[in-house]
Amino acid sequence: MTDETCQGQEWQGWREATERALYGPGGFYLRPEGPAGHFRTSVHASPLFAGAVARLLAEVAEELGTDEVDLVDVGAGRGELLTSVLAAVGSSLTVRAVAVERAARPDGLDPRVEWTNRVPRGVRGLLFANEWLDNVPVDVAEADADGTVRYVEVAPDGTERLGAPVTGPDADWLDRWWPLREPGARAEIGRPRDEAWAAAVASLAAGRAVAVDYAHVRAARPPFGTLTGFRDGREVPPVPDGSCDVTSHVALDACGDSGPPGAELVTQREALGRLGVSGARPPLSLASTDPAGYVRALASAGEAAELTARGGLGDFLWLSCRVRPRDGGPGARDGRGY
User: Fold this and answer.
1) Higher pLDDT, 38 or 267
2) Which of 146, 311, 320, 328 has the most CB atoms around it within 10 Å of its CB?
3) Are 118 and 98 in contact (CB under 8 A)?
4) Which residues, including other chains, have CB under 8 Å from residue 38's CB and lie 6 or more apart?
């Protein structure tokens, strides 16, 4: 890290620089093509994902004892998940669908989808956040040669330098969730994500909140952090100039601790398995009795295998927590699982 290459450039912490690069004027996430123009999430990989969310929504509605339920998609992209879930649900439920996204409402979106830039209050149903928390901007810390943990500052061209020592709540968060013991060790300070998740969960009057993301837990933190960039389907160096996504994996166990007790953390492979998504191949006998059905089932199994693959999308973590109605009415019973 040197200052010489960045004379005259503005140095910022990664949190401030990422906020500007992603959501400022001309920011990466405000572009018309949206996230789908640059990378493929589970939502885009297969309609099986939306079908699983639809089944999850039906479970929540049953727990609440109603056929009228809210579905709030936080970090909604261009509304792809909500559109697909509404199609999967059909007439079995009356769904108030709300997209929470900082970009403008896209043209041609299903008129049933409400569009807002903030999580609504009083939600009774399912709040679902797929790959949202990884784009909540955070600061980066690094231990210097003497072991002092310092903020990492960055210039618009991606050049870095070490700044002031980390103190206060950020230092407390690192001590608890991601201590840096060796010179050169790095971490993303996840406190803003904990706060964002806690605020989102607090919007629920009753129901469930689920976050799905690239993630890690305290027992297996990456020693040098995970900060990176993506553009046009490829991983690139993180440069906070609006030309690429700037993202890092989420300390999802810390987020879970910020919400109500009883949060559950499982892999996407397990979560989708509970919701009926399996990569098992159909029986070969089906090929002779129903060739077209066999081909469809085989294609579905391939899509399910991608969503649940170890080393791929199946390793995403799902954080789930229940919010019981404050009046102790319908939906107040205990229970776990997806």
Assistant:
1) 267
2) 320
3) no
4) 230, 231, 232, 233, 244, 245
> pLDDT tens digits, residue range 265-279?
999 999 999 998 876
Indicate if the pLDDT at residue 329 is higher than 70.
no
Nearest C-alpha neighbor of 29 from the set 73, 75, 72: 75
pLDDT for 37 equals 53
**C-alpha–C-alpha distance, residues 289 and 298, integer Å:** 14
Q: What is the pLDDT of residue 98?
A: 98
Mean pLDDT of 10-23: 96
Q: What share of the chain is helix, strand, coil (3-state, %, to 5)?
A: 35, 25, 40
Residues 22, 271, 219, 168, CA torsion sign: positive
Rounded to an integer, what is the distance from CA 316 to the centroid of its chain? 9
Strands 234-236 and 228-231, how do they pair? antiparallel
Pairing of strands 228-231, 94-100: unpaired
pLDDT, residue 292, reads 72
Distance CA 300, CA 307 (A): 11
